[in-house]
Amino acid sequence: MTERKLSSVDYLREFARQNPRFSTAIVMDARAFAKGRGERVKIQTRTDAVLQILRLCWVTDAFTSLLFHRLKVSLYARGIPIIPTVLHKLSNLLGSVQIGRPVIMEGGVYMPHGYVVIDGMTKIGSGAVIRPFVTIGLKDGDFNGPVLGRDVSVGTGAKIIGPVSIGDAARIGAGAVVTKDVPAGRTAVGVPARLAD
Questions:
Q1: Which of 43, 116, 169, 174 has its CA 20 to 30 A from that of 197?
Q2: What is the DSSP letter of 65?
């Protein structure tokens, strides 16, 4: 039996399908944003969830940008043309959030503000906090990006570059440039980043 070779578009769609369902992810994101903003986290009904999502869209551009990214990935995985590109542009315009198609992002991610770039074959775990002016991306010539575990905190202006692994509950200091793995529960600071004592 001959194995069918996937085109680059098919490959990206397969990767996009690894993201959680839109409705599940965006409710988890709403809880994360509410928690990060010190607001009511508990969502009791479907109507309550919709109202919370609409309220967060009104008060924070970063949440709206993340919602557009989630919707973009969901539609792209289903093979729907054009609309995902429009949603990508809107996400960038509203909150300066640029998240590439091959990025896998679990639900429950919090971005206090926009100005975030995430690209490549990158994975972001649930509970991640990604502050403004952060880049999570690629080294030249390598399409494999970072893998961030759950509950990772990334400080303002930090850069996480290349196929590195950031363990669960690790902290990346503001302005750090990370090009090597960071173990779970540890803190990386500086340029280039080193583990703090």
A1: 116
A2: H
26-76 pLDDT per residue, tens: 999 999 999 999 998 888 899 999 999 999 999 999 999 999 999 999 998
Residue with tokens 């009511």: 40
pLDDT in tens, 129-149: 999 999 999 988 888 899 999
Least Cα distance to 33 among 4, 55, 9 occurs for 55
Q: Residue type for 155, please? A: G
The Cβ of residue 150 has, within 10 Å, a number of other Cβ atoms equal to 16
105 forms bridges with which residues in the sheet?
A: 124
Tokens 């993340």, located at residue = 66
State the Cα–Cα distance between residues 58 and 39, nearest whole angstrom. Answer: 15
Instruction: Specify the 3-state DSSP secondary structure of 49.
Output: helix
Q: How far is CA 21 from the centre of its chain?
A: 14
